[in-house]
């Protein structure tokens, strides 16, 4: 599914996200900047922090465990339901609407924010009902597993995958960056990320975060 080249000839960049994560949101705004300056087409897929952590909830801090158990399932279920009922093309716009409300506007992952996001992109408000239903959990988990299987269980969201020189996908977690670079800075980060990710045996570059996400 994810390795097919778009009909327009652009390089597909598959992006797995959980709308709850502010860092994935930052990365998603960056890759949309990259789409303006590099010949790529972003294709959006859901993954789930709740699924990723469901076997290790007892090891997590209480506040994060509460977030995963009580708030993480709803938004990603709604996006999955929208995708199943209205097509892949609604996923990106709905993610943008959700992320803008959750993160930029500070509304958080509330029911009201989800309903507002659905209205923002012209989708039926009753899709919000799927937040409390497991109707499409099989599809949600399949999408999650497709992304996470490319990079392993020790990472989170986002996951990005692009075709490599040999035709096989190159996949990686991140990059984690704030604020989201724009213009040529976005392009430089894209080029550099692809360069290091394409090296066989390369696994990690990291430094301690000294500031939180800067939404703009």
Describe this structure in words.
This protein has 216 residues and is an alpha+beta fold. The protein has a single domain (11-198), classed as Glutaredoxin. It has helices at 22-37, 49-53, 62-70, 73-86, 91-104, 111-120, 137-148, 183-197; strands at 11-17, 40-46, 159-163, 169-173. Strands 2-1-3-4 form a four-stranded mixed β-sheet. It is globular and about 45 Å long. It starts with 10 loop residues before the first strand and ends in a 19-residue tail after the last helix. The model has no long low-confidence stretch (mean pLDDT 94).
What is the topological layout?
Layout: E1 11-17, H1 22-37, E2 40-46, H2 49-53, H3 62-70, H4 73-86, H5 91-104, H6 111-120, H7 137-148, E3 159-163, E4 169-173, H8 183-197
Parallel strand pairs: 1-2
Antiparallel strand pairs: 1-3, 3-4
Q: What is this entry, summarized?
A:
The protein has 216 residues and is of the alpha+beta class. It has helices at residues 22-37, 49-53, 62-70, 73-86, 91-104, 111-120, 137-148, 183-197; strands at 11-17, 40-46, 159-163, 169-173.
Give the tally of β-strands: 4
What are the secondary-structure elements, in order, as H or E?
A: EHEHHHHHHEEH
The portion of residues assigned to helices is: 40-55%
CATH homologous superfamily identity: Glutaredoxin
Distance from first to last alpha carbon: 33 Å
Q: What Rg, in angstroms, do the CA atoms define? A: 17 Å
Strand percent estimate: 5-15%
CATH class bucket:
Alpha Beta
Biggest sheet strand line-up: 2-1-3-4
Low-confidence stretches: none
Structural class estimated from helices and strands: alpha+beta
- Our count of helices gives 8
């Amino acid at each position: 599914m994810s390795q097919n080249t778009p009909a327009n000839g652009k390089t597909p960049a598959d992006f797995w996200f959980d709308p709850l994560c502010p860092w994935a949101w930052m990365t998603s705004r960056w890759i949309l900047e990259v789409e303006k300056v590099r010949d790529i087409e972003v294709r959006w897929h859901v993954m789930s922090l709740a699924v990723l952590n469901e076997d290790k909830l007892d090891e997590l801090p209480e506040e994060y465990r509460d977030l995963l158990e009580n708030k993480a399932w709803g938004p990603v279920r709604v996006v999955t339901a929208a995708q199943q009922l209205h097509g892949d093309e609604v996923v990106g716009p709905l993610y943008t609407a959700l992320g803008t409300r959750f993160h930029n506007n500070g509304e958080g992952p509330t029911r009201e924010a989800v309903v507002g996001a659905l209205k923002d992109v012209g989708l039926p408000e009753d899709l919000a009902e799927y937040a409390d239903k497991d109707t499409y959990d099989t599809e949600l988990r399949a999408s999650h597993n497709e992304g996470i299987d490319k990079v392993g269980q020790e990472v989170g969201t986002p996951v990005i995958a692009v075709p490599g020189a040999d035709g096989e996908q190159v996949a990686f977690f991140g990059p984690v960056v704030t604020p989201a670079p724009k213009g040529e800075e976005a392009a430089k980060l894209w080029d550099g990320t692809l360069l290091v990710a394409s090296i066989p045996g390369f696994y990690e570059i990291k430094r301690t975060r000294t500031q939180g996400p800067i939404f703009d």
